[in-house]
Specification:
With 392 residues, this protein is an alpha/beta fold. The protein has 13 helices and 12 strands. Helix 4 links the parallel strand 3 and strand 4. Helix 10 crosses helix 13. The longest helix has 22 residues. The protein binds pyridoxal-5'-phosphate (PLP).
């Protein structure tokens, strides 16, 4: 294996995070020692089941849920698909109207588009220039046929944190199911399900220093939902497939570590975010800071650098040994402008010039300073050769 990554500076935590050594240790131990199939009644099976149930309890406690309300899945994407298709199918007799926002991650947006193709009526509520949904727009869109509302907790591109509690309170009064995609916020912000007022909440391990390919869905007791994957009836019949014991244990360990240090992490990341933001705005001209100034993920900065393209910046910074992103890195390698930025009202050019910097608690200020130096140089160099110069 090459050691090219050794001194590389990683500032793309919204795409994924490194796995903590303590988490890797738990995963490895599970893979080797607790390999049993949790559905079997012999000792190896029982030991695997014990680990899964302990992990379920850890995840449930962090969000103020009971153990029976947590279903393990194969990803945040799968959690969203189960919540969306599962409740749409289970509640079709009540109505066929669903409400969501214009800026959901493709892991929710595409399922909604599929439902629209299958005859559901889907309302996509707009956002303001900060990427914020207005709770009163959700209220106005409600109809007698509305069966589900789904709004992400925080946006993965610009980090704007949505008024989930406010929307939750409205929907509770109306008795309408409420799902939130908390993949960017679980263990990065507080995500108590009762405080948020949600009936379903999706999360993923790889955004919190856990492994890729494991997630969970909180489903409030009494919620009508159909399975999405059928088979051996694991996870109380809601998600068939032999459980990924090692991945689940890794998710729980990562969540336990993140939840224990949450306040400190939020403070460290927020201070670093303000430092990055203020430094970029002071050192570089013709820059927009995208997203909400305060109500945003502590570890997210998103800028639009005029006259140049995000993709070119990402490649140059990569060559200098820094990872950042020009859009939704965990969707595809599409060069289309981010739908989130377009919905916020950015011009196509400003959306194309966007750069997302998502730092983590292991990043140091000297790493950030190295990034800032190289960013300034990158922008200057690219602007020199850009056909879109100022005033043209
Ligand atoms: C907001 C949001 N939802 C869902 C997902 C998908 O999660 P996963 O990669 O675990 O499928 C992501 C991944 O970036 C995300 O940011």
């Amino acid at each position: 294996m090459s050691n090219k990554l050794q001194n590389y500076i990683y500032l793309d935590h919204a795409a994924t995070t490194p796995v903590l050594p303590e988490v890797a240790k738990v995963i490895n131990e599970c893979l080797v020692k607790y390999f049993g199939n949790a559905s079997e009644i012999h000792l190896p099976g029982r030991e695997a089941k014990k680990i899964i149930e302990k992990s379920r309890h850890m995840i449930a406690s962090i969000m103020g849920a009971s153990d029976g309300e947590i279903i393990f899945t194969g990803s945040g994407t799968e959690s969203n698909n189960l919540a969306i298709f599962g409740t749409a199918e289970a509640n079709i007799k009540k109505g066929n109207h669903i409400i969501t926002s214009e800026i959901e991650h493709p892991a929710a947006a595409i399922p909604f588009k599929m439902l629209a193709k299958r005859g559901f009526k889907v309302t996509f509520v707009p956002v303001d220039r900060f990427g914020m949904v207005d709770a009163s727009d959700i209220k106005k869109a409600l109809s007698k046929k509305t069966i589900l509302v789904s709004v992400m907790h925080a946006n993965n591109i610009v980090g704007t944190v949505q008024p989930i509690e406010e929307i939750g309170a409205i929907l509770k009064q109306e008795g309408i199911l409420f799902h939130t995609d908390a993949v960017q916020t679980f263990c990065n912000l507080k995500t108590g399900v009762n405080r948020l007022g949600v009936d379903m909440l999706s999360l993923s391990a790889h955004k919190i220093y856990g492994p890729k390919g494991v997630g969970a869905l909180y489903i409030r007791k009494g919620t009508k939902i159909m399975p999405y994957i059928y088979g051996g009836g694991q996870e109380k019949g809601r998600r068939s497939g032999t459980e990924n014991t090692a991945g689940i244990a890794g998710l729980a360990k990562a969540a336990q570590i993140a939840a224990a240090g949450l306040e400190d992490k939020i403070k460290y990341l927020t201070d670093m975010r303000e430092y990055i933001k203020n430094s970029v705005l002071a050192r570089i001209d013709d820059v927009l800071f995208n997203g909400h100034p305060e109500k945003r993920l502590p570890g997210n900065c998103n800028f639009s650098f005029r006259f140049i393209e995000g993709e070119a910046m990402v490649l140059r910074l990569d060559a200098a040994g820094v990872a950042v992103s020009s859009g939704s890195a965990c969707s595809t390698s599409s060069t289309k402008p981010s739908h989130t930025l377009v919905s916020m009202g950015l011009t196509k050019e400003d959306a194309a010039g966007s750069l997302r910097i998502t730092h983590g608690f292991e990043n140091t200020y000297s790493q950030v300073d190295y990034f800032l130096e190289n960013l300034e140089k990158t922008v200057t160099d690219l602007r020199k050769i850009s056909p879109l110069k100022k005033g043209q």
